[in-house]
Design a protein that fits this description.
The chain has 9 helices and 10 strands. It is an alpha/beta fold. The chain has one domain: Zn peptidases (Aminopeptidase). Strands 2-3-5-4-6-10 form a 6-stranded mixed sheet, with helices on both faces. Strands 1-9 form a two-stranded antiparallel ribbon. The two termini are 33 Å apart. About 9% of the residues have low confidence. The structure holds zinc ion (ZN). Zinc ion binds next to loops.
Length: 330
Protein backbone atom coordinates (compact mmCIF):
# COMPACT_ATOMS: atom_id res chain seq x y z
CA UNK A 1 0.00 0.00 0.00
CA UNK A 2 1.03 3.55 -0.19
CA UNK A 3 0.08 7.01 0.82
CA UNK A 4 -2.79 8.39 -1.15
CA UNK A 5 -3.03 11.76 -2.75
CA UNK A 6 -6.69 12.47 -2.30
CA UNK A 7 -7.44 14.52 -5.36
CA UNK A 8 -10.99 13.27 -5.54
CA UNK A 9 -11.67 14.37 -2.01
CA UNK A 10 -10.09 17.74 -2.51
CA UNK A 11 -7.51 17.42 0.21
CA UNK A 12 -3.86 16.59 0.19
CA UNK A 13 -1.75 14.22 2.20
CA UNK A 14 -0.23 17.18 4.00
CA UNK A 15 -3.68 18.36 4.99
CA UNK A 16 -4.51 14.94 6.32
CA UNK A 17 -1.41 14.95 8.46
CA UNK A 18 -2.27 18.41 9.72
CA UNK A 19 -5.76 17.31 10.59
CA UNK A 20 -4.44 14.43 12.59
CA UNK A 21 -4.01 16.58 15.65
CA UNK A 22 -7.69 17.33 16.01
CA UNK A 23 -10.03 15.12 17.98
CA UNK A 24 -12.78 13.39 16.10
CA UNK A 25 -16.42 13.54 17.07
CA UNK A 26 -16.31 10.17 18.76
CA UNK A 27 -16.68 10.63 22.48
CA UNK A 28 -16.61 8.65 25.65
CA UNK A 29 -20.37 8.15 25.63
CA UNK A 30 -20.00 5.80 22.66
CA UNK A 31 -17.92 3.31 24.62
CA UNK A 32 -19.59 -0.09 24.55
CA UNK A 33 -20.17 -1.34 28.06
CA UNK A 34 -20.74 -4.97 27.24
CA UNK A 35 -17.44 -6.33 26.04
CA UNK A 36 -17.70 -10.06 26.48
CA UNK A 37 -14.38 -11.74 27.25
CA UNK A 38 -15.20 -14.78 25.16
CA UNK A 39 -11.75 -15.25 23.77
CA UNK A 40 -8.30 -14.20 24.89
CA UNK A 41 -6.13 -13.50 21.87
CA UNK A 42 -2.67 -15.02 22.14
CA UNK A 43 -0.08 -12.58 20.79
CA UNK A 44 2.68 -15.15 21.07
CA UNK A 45 0.72 -17.59 18.92
CA UNK A 46 0.17 -14.86 16.35
CA UNK A 47 3.90 -14.09 16.44
CA UNK A 48 4.68 -17.73 15.65
CA UNK A 49 2.23 -17.52 12.74
CA UNK A 50 4.05 -14.48 11.38
CA UNK A 51 7.40 -16.22 11.69
CA UNK A 52 6.10 -19.29 9.88
CA UNK A 53 5.07 -17.29 6.83
CA UNK A 54 8.22 -15.16 6.92
CA UNK A 55 10.28 -18.36 6.97
CA UNK A 56 9.06 -19.02 3.43
CA UNK A 57 11.11 -15.98 2.38
CA UNK A 58 9.73 -13.10 0.31
CA UNK A 59 6.22 -14.06 -0.88
CA UNK A 60 6.30 -12.25 -4.19
CA UNK A 61 3.31 -13.18 -6.31
CA UNK A 62 4.24 -15.83 -8.86
CA UNK A 63 7.33 -17.16 -7.07
CA UNK A 64 7.80 -20.66 -5.58
CA UNK A 65 8.05 -19.36 -2.00
CA UNK A 66 4.78 -17.48 -2.50
CA UNK A 67 3.10 -20.60 -3.79
CA UNK A 68 4.37 -22.66 -0.87
CA UNK A 69 3.11 -20.06 1.60
CA UNK A 70 -0.29 -20.06 -0.06
CA UNK A 71 -0.53 -23.81 0.33
CA UNK A 72 0.42 -23.41 3.99
CA UNK A 73 -2.30 -20.82 4.62
CA UNK A 74 -4.93 -23.01 2.97
CA UNK A 75 -3.85 -26.06 4.96
CA UNK A 76 -3.93 -24.10 8.21
CA UNK A 77 -7.42 -22.78 7.55
CA UNK A 78 -8.67 -26.27 6.80
CA UNK A 79 -7.10 -27.52 10.02
CA UNK A 80 -8.65 -24.63 11.92
CA UNK A 81 -12.15 -25.72 11.07
CA UNK A 82 -13.32 -23.31 8.40
CA UNK A 83 -16.68 -24.37 6.95
CA UNK A 84 -15.29 -23.79 3.49
CA UNK A 85 -11.97 -22.65 2.09
CA UNK A 86 -12.38 -21.16 -1.36
CA UNK A 87 -9.50 -20.31 -3.66
CA UNK A 88 -9.81 -17.80 -6.45
CA UNK A 89 -6.97 -18.18 -8.94
CA UNK A 90 -6.19 -16.37 -12.12
CA UNK A 91 -3.64 -14.26 -13.90
CA UNK A 92 -3.59 -10.50 -13.77
CA UNK A 93 -1.28 -8.01 -15.45
CA UNK A 94 0.86 -5.73 -13.33
CA UNK A 95 1.51 -2.13 -14.38
CA UNK A 96 4.95 -3.11 -15.74
CA UNK A 97 3.58 -5.91 -17.90
CA UNK A 98 4.45 -8.76 -15.53
CA UNK A 99 1.83 -11.50 -15.62
CA UNK A 100 0.93 -12.45 -12.07
CA UNK A 101 -0.65 -15.79 -11.19
CA UNK A 102 -2.57 -14.67 -8.12
CA UNK A 103 -4.41 -16.66 -5.48
CA UNK A 104 -7.04 -15.19 -3.17
CA UNK A 105 -8.01 -17.41 -0.26
CA UNK A 106 -11.39 -17.13 1.47
CA UNK A 107 -12.23 -19.09 4.63
CA UNK A 108 -15.83 -18.94 5.82
CA UNK A 109 -16.93 -19.57 9.38
CA UNK A 110 -20.55 -19.96 10.45
CA UNK A 111 -21.26 -20.09 6.76
CA UNK A 112 -25.06 -20.11 7.02
CA UNK A 113 -25.32 -16.96 9.14
CA UNK A 114 -27.20 -14.25 7.26
CA UNK A 115 -25.12 -11.47 8.80
CA UNK A 116 -21.42 -11.58 8.03
CA UNK A 117 -18.26 -9.67 8.82
CA UNK A 118 -15.29 -9.66 6.46
CA UNK A 119 -11.75 -9.68 7.87
CA UNK A 120 -9.03 -9.34 5.28
CA UNK A 121 -5.31 -8.93 4.84
CA UNK A 122 -2.86 -9.24 1.97
CA UNK A 123 -0.45 -12.15 2.06
CA UNK A 124 1.92 -11.21 -0.78
CA UNK A 125 5.05 -9.13 -0.28
CA UNK A 126 6.59 -6.31 -2.29
CA UNK A 127 8.94 -7.40 -5.11
CA UNK A 128 11.22 -4.40 -4.68
CA UNK A 129 12.59 -2.67 -1.58
CA UNK A 130 12.17 0.66 -3.32
CA UNK A 131 12.33 2.68 -0.13
CA UNK A 132 15.94 1.60 0.46
CA UNK A 133 18.58 4.32 0.45
CA UNK A 134 21.02 2.36 -1.71
CA UNK A 135 20.09 2.05 -5.37
CA UNK A 136 21.41 -1.52 -5.56
CA UNK A 137 19.09 -2.61 -2.78
CA UNK A 138 15.94 -1.26 -4.37
CA UNK A 139 15.62 -4.17 -6.78
CA UNK A 140 15.71 -6.76 -3.99
CA UNK A 141 12.48 -8.26 -2.63
CA UNK A 142 11.04 -7.28 0.75
CA UNK A 143 10.77 -10.00 3.39
CA UNK A 144 7.54 -8.46 4.62
CA UNK A 145 7.28 -9.54 8.24
CA UNK A 146 5.13 -6.52 8.99
CA UNK A 147 3.92 -5.75 5.45
CA UNK A 148 2.33 -9.01 4.33
CA UNK A 149 3.12 -11.19 7.37
CA UNK A 150 1.56 -9.50 10.39
CA UNK A 151 -2.01 -9.49 9.12
CA UNK A 152 -1.76 -13.17 8.20
CA UNK A 153 -0.42 -13.97 11.65
CA UNK A 154 -3.31 -12.23 13.36
CA UNK A 155 -6.03 -13.69 11.16
CA UNK A 156 -4.75 -17.25 11.56
CA UNK A 157 -4.95 -16.77 15.32
CA UNK A 158 -8.46 -15.33 14.92
CA UNK A 159 -9.32 -18.48 12.97
CA UNK A 160 -8.29 -20.60 15.92
CA UNK A 161 -10.83 -18.80 18.08
CA UNK A 162 -13.55 -19.03 15.47
CA UNK A 163 -13.04 -22.77 15.50
CA UNK A 164 -13.38 -22.90 19.29
CA UNK A 165 -16.25 -20.43 19.78
CA UNK A 166 -18.82 -19.75 17.10
CA UNK A 167 -19.78 -16.06 17.04
CA UNK A 168 -23.35 -14.88 16.46
CA UNK A 169 -22.38 -13.60 13.04
CA UNK A 170 -20.67 -15.30 10.15
CA UNK A 171 -17.03 -14.40 9.62
CA UNK A 172 -15.19 -14.47 6.32
CA UNK A 173 -11.41 -14.43 6.44
CA UNK A 174 -10.00 -13.23 3.13
CA UNK A 175 -6.31 -13.42 2.29
CA UNK A 176 -5.78 -11.32 -0.80
CA UNK A 177 -2.88 -11.55 -3.20
CA UNK A 178 -0.97 -9.09 -5.40
CA UNK A 179 -1.59 -6.09 -3.18
CA UNK A 180 1.97 -4.86 -3.20
CA UNK A 181 2.97 -5.02 -6.90
CA UNK A 182 1.92 -1.43 -7.58
CA UNK A 183 3.62 1.58 -9.08
CA UNK A 184 5.10 3.79 -6.40
CA UNK A 185 5.71 6.93 -8.42
CA UNK A 186 3.18 9.17 -10.13
CA UNK A 187 0.91 10.19 -7.29
CA UNK A 188 -2.78 9.82 -7.88
CA UNK A 189 -2.62 8.32 -11.37
CA UNK A 190 -1.65 4.77 -10.47
CA UNK A 191 -3.96 3.81 -7.63
CA UNK A 192 -5.41 0.92 -9.61
CA UNK A 193 -1.96 -0.68 -10.01
CA UNK A 194 -2.18 -1.72 -6.34
CA UNK A 195 -4.44 -4.26 -4.65
CA UNK A 196 -4.82 -6.36 -7.79
CA UNK A 197 -6.00 -9.45 -5.93
CA UNK A 198 -8.75 -7.53 -4.17
CA UNK A 199 -9.85 -5.93 -7.42
CA UNK A 200 -10.14 -9.38 -9.01
CA UNK A 201 -11.99 -10.76 -5.99
CA UNK A 202 -14.53 -7.98 -6.10
CA UNK A 203 -15.31 -8.71 -9.75
CA UNK A 204 -16.52 -12.19 -8.88
CA UNK A 205 -17.03 -12.15 -5.13
CA UNK A 206 -18.90 -15.27 -4.06
CA UNK A 207 -21.79 -13.49 -2.37
CA UNK A 208 -25.45 -13.46 -3.10
CA UNK A 209 -27.06 -10.16 -2.21
CA UNK A 210 -28.41 -11.51 1.07
CA UNK A 211 -25.04 -12.46 2.50
CA UNK A 212 -22.81 -9.59 1.47
CA UNK A 213 -20.76 -8.73 4.56
CA UNK A 214 -22.20 -5.95 6.67
CA UNK A 215 -18.74 -4.46 6.87
CA UNK A 216 -15.06 -5.26 6.50
CA UNK A 217 -11.93 -4.78 8.57
CA UNK A 218 -8.58 -4.78 6.80
CA UNK A 219 -5.40 -5.51 8.75
CA UNK A 220 -2.16 -4.24 7.25
CA UNK A 221 1.15 -3.60 8.99
CA UNK A 222 -0.26 -4.46 12.42
CA UNK A 223 2.82 -5.95 14.03
CA UNK A 224 5.57 -3.39 14.67
CA UNK A 225 6.94 -2.51 18.09
CA UNK A 226 5.00 0.31 19.73
CA UNK A 227 2.73 0.73 16.71
CA UNK A 228 -0.11 3.19 17.11
CA UNK A 229 -3.28 2.94 15.07
CA UNK A 230 -4.92 6.19 14.08
CA UNK A 231 -8.27 6.47 12.36
CA UNK A 232 -7.02 6.10 8.78
CA UNK A 233 -8.39 8.94 6.71
CA UNK A 234 -10.12 7.00 3.93
CA UNK A 235 -11.79 4.71 6.45
CA UNK A 236 -12.99 7.73 8.36
CA UNK A 237 -14.42 9.22 5.17
CA UNK A 238 -16.09 6.13 3.75
CA UNK A 239 -16.90 3.91 6.74
CA UNK A 240 -16.96 6.11 9.84
CA UNK A 241 -19.55 4.04 11.74
CA UNK A 242 -17.21 1.06 11.52
CA UNK A 243 -14.24 3.12 12.62
CA UNK A 244 -16.33 4.34 15.57
CA UNK A 245 -17.29 0.77 16.41
CA UNK A 246 -13.74 -0.55 16.38
CA UNK A 247 -12.04 2.36 18.11
CA UNK A 248 -14.74 2.41 20.80
CA UNK A 249 -14.29 -1.29 21.33
CA UNK A 250 -10.54 -0.79 21.56
CA UNK A 251 -11.05 1.76 24.32
CA UNK A 252 -13.39 -0.50 26.27
CA UNK A 253 -10.97 -3.39 25.77
CA UNK A 254 -8.12 -1.47 27.36
CA UNK A 255 -6.31 -0.58 24.15
CA UNK A 256 -7.10 3.10 23.92
CA UNK A 257 -3.37 3.75 24.07
CA UNK A 258 -2.81 1.80 20.85
CA UNK A 259 -5.95 2.88 19.00
CA UNK A 260 -5.52 6.63 19.01
CA UNK A 261 -8.77 8.50 18.68
CA UNK A 262 -7.48 10.93 16.06
CA UNK A 263 -7.58 10.92 12.29
CA UNK A 264 -4.41 9.81 10.51
CA UNK A 265 -3.17 9.94 6.95
CA UNK A 266 -4.97 8.50 3.93
CA UNK A 267 -3.84 5.19 2.50
CA UNK A 268 -4.51 3.45 -0.78
CA UNK A 269 -5.07 -0.11 0.33
CA UNK A 270 -7.39 -3.05 -0.21
CA UNK A 271 -10.15 -1.33 1.75
CA UNK A 272 -10.23 1.43 -0.87
CA UNK A 273 -11.58 -1.03 -3.41
CA UNK A 274 -13.83 -2.91 -1.00
CA UNK A 275 -15.55 0.38 -0.21
CA UNK A 276 -15.98 1.09 -3.91
CA UNK A 277 -17.71 -2.28 -4.23
CA UNK A 278 -20.29 -1.20 -1.67
CA UNK A 279 -19.01 -2.89 1.46
CA UNK A 280 -18.02 -0.40 4.19
CA UNK A 281 -14.47 -1.32 5.08
CA UNK A 282 -11.84 0.17 7.36
CA UNK A 283 -8.08 -0.20 7.49
CA UNK A 284 -6.26 -0.88 10.74
CA UNK A 285 -2.76 0.20 9.77
CA UNK A 286 0.20 1.99 11.30
CA UNK A 287 0.14 5.18 9.26
CA UNK A 288 1.34 7.83 11.73
CA UNK A 289 4.71 6.53 12.88
CA UNK A 290 6.40 9.19 15.04
CA UNK A 291 9.64 9.00 13.05
CA UNK A 292 8.25 9.04 9.53
CA UNK A 293 4.83 10.64 10.13
CA UNK A 294 3.56 7.83 7.91
CA UNK A 295 4.45 4.10 7.82
CA UNK A 296 6.93 2.25 9.98
CA UNK A 297 10.53 3.04 8.93
CA UNK A 298 10.95 -0.56 7.70
CA UNK A 299 8.19 -0.11 5.11
CA UNK A 300 9.30 -1.39 1.67
CA UNK A 301 12.87 -1.85 2.86
CA UNK A 302 15.08 -4.85 3.54
CA UNK A 303 14.62 -4.18 7.27
CA UNK A 304 11.04 -5.44 7.33
CA UNK A 305 11.97 -8.67 9.10
CA UNK A 306 11.05 -10.39 12.38
CA UNK A 307 13.03 -7.82 14.36
CA UNK A 308 10.22 -5.39 13.57
CA UNK A 309 7.50 -7.61 15.01
CA UNK A 310 6.23 -7.41 18.58
CA UNK A 311 3.72 -9.88 19.98
CA UNK A 312 2.13 -7.21 22.18
CA UNK A 313 1.17 -5.21 19.09
CA UNK A 314 -0.30 -8.32 17.47
CA UNK A 315 -2.14 -8.98 20.72
CA UNK A 316 -3.65 -5.48 20.85
CA UNK A 317 -4.98 -5.68 17.30
CA UNK A 318 -6.12 -9.28 17.54
CA UNK A 319 -7.91 -8.80 20.85
CA UNK A 320 -9.79 -5.76 19.59
CA UNK A 321 -10.86 -7.63 16.46
CA UNK A 322 -12.03 -10.61 18.52
CA UNK A 323 -13.96 -8.34 20.87
CA UNK A 324 -15.67 -6.68 17.92
CA UNK A 325 -16.60 -10.04 16.39
CA UNK A 326 -17.87 -11.66 19.57
CA UNK A 327 -19.93 -8.61 20.52
CA UNK A 328 -21.50 -8.27 17.08
CA UNK A 329 -25.20 -9.19 17.30
CA UNK A 330 -26.74 -11.51 14.74
ZN1 LIG B 1 3.48 -2.77 1.10
Amino acid sequence: MRMLQIAALGVSLICCACNSGSKTETSQNQIPADTVPVAVFDGDSAYVNVKRVVDFGPRVTGTPSHDACGQYIVARLETLGADTVMIQEGVVSAYNGDRLPYKNILARYNADAPKRVLLLTHWDTRPWADQEAKLDDRSKPVLGANDGGSGVGVLLEVARHLQAHEPQVGVDLLFVDAEDYGQSDGWGANEDTWCLGTQEWLKTKPYKDSVVPAYGILLDMVGAHDALFYREFTSQQLAKPIVDKVWSRALSSGYGDRFVNEVGTAITDDHTFVNRAGIPCIDIIECMNPTTKSFHPSWHTLSDDMNVIDSSTLKAVGQVVLNVIYNEPA
